[in-house]
Amino acid sequence: MKHLAWLLVACALLLREADAAQRPNILLILPDQMRSSAMGCDGNTQAHTPHIDRLAADGIRFKHTYANVPVCCPARAILMTGTYPHVNGMIANDLRLREELVTLPELLQRAGYRTGFVGKWHLDGGRRDPGFVPPGSRRQGFEFWAAYECHHRHFRPSYFRDTPDMIVVDKFEPEASCDFAVEFLKSQPRQQPFFLTVQMGPPHDPYGAPPEYMQQFPPERIAPPANWQPGSEQPRAETKPRGVTSALNPSVAPGGLEEIAAYYAAITAIDDQVGRLLATLKQLELDENTIVLFTSDHGDMLGSHGLRRKRKPYDESARVPGIVCWPAKIPRGLVVETLFSHVDMPSTLLGLAGLPIPRQMQGADLSRVAIGETTAGPEAVLLQIFVPFRPDQVERPWRGIVTGTHTYARFEEEPWLLFDRTKDPDELHNLVGDADAAELQRQLDRQLSELMRKNGDAWSFNSMELVEEGGRLYRHETFYTLEEYRAWAKEHPERAP
Fold first, then answer.
1. CATH label of the domain that carries residue 421
2. DSSP label of 392
């Protein structure tokens, strides 16, 4: 009987391995703070993104792809869990993602995938530097590891592998990260599928790129968007990280066209690394059966509407790239109007891989849209911000809804923004309070309330505390929740202003 039991276990393992060998590989590429409108394939004639554009031409581009929570840690937690922050707990930057949550890499690992993470993690909470995350449950299902918690030293990035020994690389961060990614791909067993994600630091501020890229974008040749306003930020005392020479990271004038030029330069540098990853897949004969998802955690206002960075419902902040390519299954050159957001991405990747989707995941499986069978999808996208952050000009928490035609956002106390994106793609005319749009506003208000109720969201999850300012959540201790921070702050008033 004992031998029979071992034989059954061995057979089950062999069947699992045989089944896994037929599944597609998955490569998730995620630069930090890249808005969708900064791609040539999205209609930007100034951006230079030939490899990203080719990826879109070889697959499907979801024109209306949104970050449900357009700020770093909450967005990344959604991508890992397929749940909103009020469910997974990541309602603010620099909390720690709970180890007991079921994540996408864990699910894929159970299905026989080799998993790998490269780049900016920003899900471990606590002190950002030095940024070592030890092997084990805090890596949320990733085996291969070349990462850092959070820094913006784009020109001399540091990484950790499986020991606390810091690895400093004298390269622009996208190239350094892709060195590790190529290492992963070249060490991949032929009969095992993989899930690799490469999460680059740029084009996040401080804006800049190596000189050969900066030279391609003279600021005087930049034509800003129609909604751009100069002088959106007064110069700060420090415009580049310590220890970085001005030759590598030229100081660009805050709030000026120099920022947009430097942003485009960083994206072109990223694009070259996307091309390098695609070439490596082809060289290793992995390209046909690899799903490539290209997106970002959020966008960047860059002076549009006179505003900075992220955390806002405007398209520049909330709309991100949504490109999926899989030569073996996805028809070439599809462009769809179907709404797609971060919360849908884990379910969609599992659906494409032919794997079951856990009931706790809150997003839609749009795998049938990706392979060209339908264009049906969600009626609306839920947008959320749970805490204020004054440096980004966000004074209060808010909620929003994006439909195929409109964007509406409100604070708990009052409506805020309403745009008809079909007639006003630059979102210049706020219709809140417009008598002719009163019924539309009421309708969207009801739809937002229902979307919040359906997903278990409520205004009570918000906090007006300035927990994201001054490093409160990462300077001293590690916290899983705001309640933990409040208890600690009460005991240590001298350390928690």
1. 3.30.1120.10
2. G
